[in-house]
Amino acid sequence: MAASPHLVVFTGSGISAESGIKTFRASDGLWENHPVEDVATPEAWQRNPQQVLDFYNQRREQIRRAKPNAAHKALAGLEQDGFNVSIITQNIDDLHERAGSHNVLHLHGEILKARSSVDERMRYPLLKGGIELGNVCDKGSQLRPDVVWFGESVPLFAEACDLVSQADFLLVVGTSLAVMPAASLLSYIDYDTPCALVDPEADSLSPPGVLAINTTAGEGVPALVNRWKQQGNLLLS
C-alpha cells in the first residue's frame, strides 16, 4: 500500500488571531502596545527581566483562555482521517495541540514552557501560573520563557527545513512570510511541489508559483480540508 501523501502546514499569527490571540505585527513594531525591543529581545531580558516576565505571564493567561478555531480543528481532523500531516508553526501557543494535532514543530518556542537561562535543554511545563523572579532551574539559574526572541538563533530551523523538503504539498496559513529565517522555508520545497497560501492578503503576499487563496484561515483551511477528504488526496485540480 502506498504511503499517504505528506501535507506540511506552515502557520503564522493569522491562524491564532482568529482565536482572539493578539500577535506581534511588524508594521508598527508593537506587541500588545509594547515595543518589541522592551519585551522580546535578549537585551530586554538583561535590562528588565521583571517586565519581560510580566509581559509573558499576561500573554500566557490570554492563550490559556483562547480556544482552537475552525482552521486548527480542520487540520487535526485531516490527521485523524488518516492523512499524513506535519505542522510547523511560528506561533508560541498550543492551539494546534489542543485541537488534536500530534505532529507540531514550534519554530519560535512554546509559551507554556519555561527554560533555564543557562541551559536551553532544561525545559519545564507551566501547567498553571507563570514565571517569577527567583524561579530557578535545576542548575540554580533564573527561568525564562521558552520562546525565541528577536536576535536569537532558531534551534529547530534545520528540522523544519527537512520537513518542508519532504512535503508532497505545502500549505501556508496566516503568515506574511516576512520574519526570517522562517520566511525562507519555502525555498526548501522541491521545485514541483505544489504550495498554497491562505491569507486575506494572499494576492500581495504570495511568491511566484504559490497559489493565493484570499480568505481567512477559518474559512479557507476547512474548505481545503473538506475537498481533500472527499477526494482522498491532496490535489487541487
TrEMBL record:
<dbReference type="GO" id="GO:0036055">
    <property type="term" value="F:protein-succinyllysine desuccinylase activity"/>
</dbReference>
<dbReference type="GO" id="GO:0017136">
    <property type="term" value="F:histone deacetylase activity, NAD-dependent"/>
</dbReference>
<dbReference type="InterPro" id="IPR026590">
    <property type="entry name" value="Ssirtuin_cat_dom"/>
</dbReference>
<feature type="binding site">
    <location>
        <begin position="174"/>
        <end position="176"/>
    </location>
    <ligand>
        <name>NAD(+)</name>
    </ligand>
</feature>
<keyword id="KW-0520">NAD</keyword>
<dbReference type="InterPro" id="IPR050134">
    <property type="entry name" value="NAD-dep_sirtuin_deacylases"/>
</dbReference>
<protein>
    <recommendedName>
        <fullName>NAD-dependent protein deacylase</fullName>
        <ecNumber>2.3.1.286</ecNumber>
    </recommendedName>
</protein>
<comment type="function">
    <text>NAD-dependent lysine deacetylase and desuccinylase that specifically removes acetyl and succinyl groups on target proteins. Modulates the activities of several proteins which are inactive in their acylated form.</text>
</comment>
<dbReference type="InterPro" id="IPR026591">
    <property type="entry name" value="Sirtuin_cat_small_dom_sf"/>
</dbReference>
<feature type="domain" description="Deacetylase sirtuin-type">
    <location>
        <begin position="1"/>
        <end position="231"/>
    </location>
</feature>
<feature type="binding site">
    <location>
        <position position="56"/>
    </location>
    <ligand>
        <name>substrate</name>
    </ligand>
</feature>
<dbReference type="InterPro" id="IPR003000">
    <property type="entry name" value="Sirtuin"/>
</dbReference>
<dbReference type="GO" id="GO:0070403">
    <property type="term" value="F:NAD+ binding"/>
</dbReference>
<dbReference type="InterPro" id="IPR027546">
    <property type="entry name" value="Sirtuin_class_III"/>
</dbReference>
<keyword id="KW-0963">Cytoplasm</keyword>
<feature type="binding site">
    <location>
        <begin position="90"/>
        <end position="93"/>
    </location>
    <ligand>
        <name>NAD(+)</name>
    </ligand>
</feature>
<keyword id="KW-0808">Transferase</keyword>
<dbReference type="InterPro" id="IPR029035">
    <property type="entry name" value="DHS-like_NAD/FAD-binding_dom"/>
</dbReference>
<feature type="binding site">
    <location>
        <position position="217"/>
    </location>
    <ligand>
        <name>NAD(+)</name>
    </ligand>
</feature>
<feature type="active site" description="Proton acceptor">
    <location>
        <position position="108"/>
    </location>
</feature>
<dbReference type="Pfam" id="PF02146">
    <property type="entry name" value="SIR2"/>
</dbReference>
<feature type="binding site">
    <location>
        <position position="59"/>
    </location>
    <ligand>
        <name>substrate</name>
    </ligand>
</feature>
<dbReference type="GO" id="GO:0005737">
    <property type="term" value="C:cytoplasm"/>
</dbReference>
<dbReference type="GO" id="GO:0036054">
    <property type="term" value="F:protein-malonyllysine demalonylase activity"/>
</dbReference>
<comment type="similarity">
    <text>Belongs to the sirtuin family. Class III subfamily.</text>
</comment>
